Fold:
Amino acid sequence: MLVNNNSQGQNGQSAPLVTPTEGQPDGGASGNEQTAADAADDAGTAETPVERPARPDTIPAEYWDDETGLKADEFGKAFAELTTSFTDLKTKAEERAADTPTEAAGYAVDVAALELPEGVELDENDPALKAARELAFEKKFTKAEFQSLVGFEVQRQIAERTAYNNRLAEERTKLGADAAKRIDAVANSLVGRLGEKGRALLPLMATAAAVEAFETLLRQSGTSFNQSGRTETDPHEIEGYEKMTFRQRMAAIEARKARS
Structure:
């Protein structure tokens, strides 16, 4: 026969009728399923990434921690200090506004606070004082600031005058013990001869050399001088002149001028 129905092989052994895996669990599939299960378990146990807080633009970097966020204590302290500073500034601004006049005339000078030396007075009509008031109003000075401005200028002028008087005293010393008489003699002769033009020359007698120069000129014009002032031969001698006050001397000189 062409077909052999004998189930035995050539060796007499029985040939299996099914494959070894038929009817049994698939070894390869079981392995794959186990790997997937293990991966799922691993995913379940892995740490979830933590999202870091983002710093708002309104919060300075110095008060922010990239891990924990806002540094509440430091930020709170800084905010409290800022609030205090703002309150102080507001209070000072209000005080300044209350002490600032609304017109230039509102700036008054406390003369007593200037502590002027004896014999020195404040000239309220001085153009410089008017200019100071206008400047203070333009710059919105307080009354206290204006007082300081005036006080500074007054002290400057006093220092300048004191220095001038000291230099004048030094020059008078050069004229000797009769310096006052010599200066008066020259002054009286200048005013008596030249009137207002002569009076305009008086400020020039600030040095000993100037006084001596005028004495020389007056001698050459007919007035006799010595170290004590005019001599008895002076044609412009005023009777009782030495006993007169300054105003009386000026009046006598003007009277003599009117008669001449």
In short: Confidence is low (pLDDT under 50) at residues 7-12, 14-18, 231-235. DSSP finds nine helices and four strands in the chain.
